Every structure is written in C-alpha cells, then in structure tokens.
Description:
Layout: H1 4-17, E1 22-26, H2 42-47, E2 55-58, E3 63-67, H3 72-78, E4 85-88, H4 94-101, E5 107-110, H5 117-128, E6 133-136, H6 141-145, E7 158-159, H7 162-165, H8 169-182, E8 187-190, H9 193-200, E9 202-203, E10 216-220, E11 225-228, H10 236-242, E12 246-249, H11 254-259, E13 265-268, H12 275-283, E14 287-290, H13 296-300, H14 304-331, H15 339-351, E15 356-359, E16 364-367, E17 390-396, E18 398-400, E19 403-404, E20 407-413, H16 418-435, E21 438-440, H17 445-457, E22 468-470, E23 479-484, E24 499-502, E25 505-508, E26 512-515, E27 518-525, E28 534-539, H18 557-574, H19 580-589
Parallel strand pairs: 1-5, 3-4, 5-6, 8-13, 11-12, 13-14
Antiparallel strand pairs: 1-2, 2-3, 7-9, 8-10, 10-11, 15-18, 16-17, 17-20, 18-19, 21-28, 22-23, 24-27, 25-26, 27-28
Helix pairs in contact: 4-5, 14-15, 14-19, 16-17
Amino acid sequence: MSTYEDRLKALREQLRRDRLDGFVVPLTDEHMSEYVGAYAQRLAWLTGFQGSAGSAVVLPEEAAIFVDGRYTLQVREQVDGSHWQYQSVPQTSVAAWLGDNAGQGARIGYDPWLHTSAWVKQASAALAEKGASLVAVDTNPIDAVWPDRPEPSRAKLVVHQEQHAGRGAAAKRQDMADWLVAKKADAAILSALDSIAWTFNIRGQDVERTPVALAYAIVHADATADLYVAPEKIDEAVIKHLGNAVRVHDRSAFADALHALSGKAVVADPERAVAAIFDALESGGATVLPLRDPAVLPKAIKNEVEIAGHKAAQKRDGAALSRYLHWVSTEAPKGGVTELSAADRLRSFREDTGMLKDLSFDTISGAGPNGAVVHYRVEEKTNRPLEMDSLYLVDSGGQYVDGTTDITRTLAIGAPTAEMRRRFTLVLKGHIALARAIFPKGARGGQLDALARQYLWANGLDYAHGTGHGVGSFLSVHEGPQRIATFSGGDEPLQPGMILSNEPGYYKTGEYGIRIENLVLVVEKDIPGAEQPMLGFETLSFAPIDRNLVDLDVMDPAERAWLDAYHAQVLAIVGPQLDGEARAWLDRACAPL
C-alpha cells in the first residue's frame, strides 16, 4: 500500500471479492461532516487528494474524482491523472458520470452511512437507465484494505459553559420539544456533530479544527433526550452537566435505537442525516418526517452572549494577526520566509493570546502562484518562499472558547504590478459593496452575491467560490444554513444574529491569488422613511488591508471613506493591544488614504 496505485488496485480486488462492479467514495463521515476525523479520510487515503470537499468513483477499468472550482488546480497537483479522470462539479456529478460510464447490469456499491437518501435516489435513477443498480454495503470496502486505518478519537467531552453559550441546554431542548409538539412529532434525530454540540452545550476534540465529539442524539417531545457516545469519552463533570433528563448510551447502540422508534413520528433532516438513518427508521416502522434539524436555525442566529463573545475573540485575534502582518512586512523582504514558516509564526502569535484552543482550519499560506489555489494546503513539497515583487495570500482563523474567527489578507511583498493593484482594488470594491449593503428582511444571500462580483464582472473576471459562509460560535468555521452565494447555495433568508464571511477574490492561475475576507454580523438597520424592516452588516474582523495594493484611481470617494473609517476602527480596537514597532507599523498601515 505504499503508492496510491497500489491502493486503487487493492480496492478493485476487494470489490471483485464483494461481487461489486464499482464503489463510490465521498469525503465525509457518518454525520455528513465537512471536516472529518482521520479515521474517515477514505478519499485522501485512496487518491492523495487533501481538499475538504470531493468524491470519487472506482469502476473495474476507470476511476474518476469529482471536485468543484475551489480545487481545480489542487486536484491536478495531488491526484495522478494517469489513474484518475478529473471531473468538475457542478458541470457534472457522480450520479451523471455513473449513468454514462457504469456497465450494463453493473452493481455499484455505496456505504449508506456516508450518503443522503436524496443522493441514493438520484444515483439509482441514473443507473437504472443502464440496467445497473446501487448496492448498499454492510462493510466499507476501503476499510477492508486500509491496513493502518486510524481509530476514532477517544478524547473526552468537555462542558461548554453557559457564560459562553448564552443559553442552557435544558432550555434549548425545551424549545425543540415545543417545536416537535407543533409538528405532531414524537422525536427528532440529531446526527450533525455541531448540532449535538450546540444542543447539549458540549464540545470535543474528535475532528481536527472543529471542537465537536462523535455522537448521535434523539430529542423527544417531552424535552428528554438520548445521547449516544463512546462511554470512555464521558466523565462525571459531563454527566452532571447533562442531568437526569439526558440518558447516555454507547454510540454503538444508536442503530438499534432507531429500530426501536416503531410507531413514532420522527423528524430526520434529509440534508444532514445519512440514508442508513432513514432506512433504519422506515424498516423499524417509524413515520419519518423529513424536516430540517431543529438545531440548525437557532444555532445560526447568535444570541447576545455569543455575539459579545465573538467580538471579544475577534479583538484578540485581530491583534494577533496584526502582529503577524507587521512581522511579514519586516521579515519577508529579508528573504528566508517560506509559506510553512510563515504559517507557523502566525499560529504562534495566536497562541501568545493564551486563549487559543485550535486553529479553525489549516492556514492557507499561499505565496505567488500558490495563492491562486483557492483552498491551498501547504506541505513540504509545495512550500515556496515569500519572494520580492509578488503577492502573498493568508487565510486563517482561530478557535477560542468564546468565538470562531476566519480572516483573509493579501499582501504585497515588495512592489506589486499595476495589474495586481488594479485587480486587488476590484476585489476590494466588491468587498466594500457587500459590507455596505442594505437589504429588506427576508432577503437571501443569493440576492447579494452579485454585489461582490460586479466590478470583477465588468472587467471580464470572476471567482469560482461562494462569497460568504456562515460561522459557528466555538464550532464549525463553515456553518449553514446561511450563505452568500448563487441562488442554488444561498437561498436561506438572512436574519439578525447570523454571522457570515465577506470574501470576494480573484485568482490568476500560475501567478497570484487575491482574497479579502472579514466576518460580518447581520443587524437591523434604521432607515429614515423605510416602509419595511431593513437589514445590513456590521463588520466584525479588524486587521489592516494592504494600502500598497489599493489603486486610488479605481476607488470612488465613498469607497475611500469606507476604507479610512474601517482602518480607524482597526486602530481603535487593535491599537491599544500593540506597542513599540508593531504599534508604529499599525499607525502607518491604517493611515488615511
């Protein structure tokens, strides 16, 4: 198993033993997580792909890997094109490709704990046209051939105190119970890890960069709940916190518990609960109500305590990042700074706060052409120096007990070209347009997405990712349901209390990347003469935007005023936390245009 070719060959041999003509490999776990524990990194083990979103299909003679526009360059660098076809989503899909490439009468395997029911129906329909079928497996064939597959984490759960959560777990369960009664339901299945963490005010260490624990839960209409988690992960402090209304079971008992809900009306989320959950409920005689997980929306709408905590986290994180930006401005021109050493130094500045629990994702530290790889992940073989007269893109964030941060800055190392400055300013104009947006209550993120792209579009340019994602409260750095993206991905009404990113970008393959990202809070706006409730954004992230990359000829007076006002806020919030050379640098970096 020393090469990816060997692993692909071993999987095909296992499929023959299992009498399967193919297998689908998604990048997720049994909780439909975006970021997964090492034990669930099946796609990476099989292909070498290190991105956070993708899928693969293995047939007897062909294999394909599917990624979206964020990973177009990365997949070609990490996955051998002589063994894998590169497929772009949404231009195609796993189901469509199977419909075109599966053999007549083929049996294509899938793990029902790693796919939604909707996907199963879609893929089954595509295969049916070929007389082929989708076959649920009892044991994932990759697990059978992965000799040193890691064990799931055994880390202990910890209590997320109400002083940070803002609301007690019992009150949250009661809200869910009231909702279940209104829906004429007896119980709701919680399988998304961040939903469980939020509902029970617990956190964990089972997924790198995301403070969640591997668990399932069933919340009942009487406000009691059953929590399914490995017993060695629970201590007396957590038991006391959960209280008598929460019954704790071994995680392995969850599947049988689904069968035991016979005769009950049970809510399960079609987007977040895997097909195996729906299959077990239906085969056990439950009536399944396909409704959204009742934790999703209240988790997204932050309460006053969570908002205050987030602002405190942003304040200290902004100071750490500003110290780092000063360090880069001083050290990079001397030579010897690399993407890896820069990322390590940034982490050390965050650790110096004394409150960092983890990074919120692997730092994207992209110098020159590596900055054009949207979700670039630096490693030894791709590590580049920060060279003079180039751009450096750094996208990073921290996990603090009071908030989760995510911020991107693009820096000029030396003298930028006129093209770099102009395109950076087009991205900045889009960022400012979104930051200043006023919109009616009920507006969707999809209605706002074009505001950030308009100046790039006017110059024949664009970027292949969404403009904004939701962010959790000491939880996932990518949180739904809110997004700022095209309508297919941004159809959730924005509500006060939601936190999102504002991150337009531009990427020139082989040369450089540009992204400017702050987090923003949806707030109510008092508009004189308004005939309906209006909303807007409050910027939450504070660190200098590189003035050396701003082309003033492209900026209008209102945009210049916004940037000056933003930098004045940076000085007011971050300035008191800095001293010496770092404070002097910040004064210069935030000087009025």
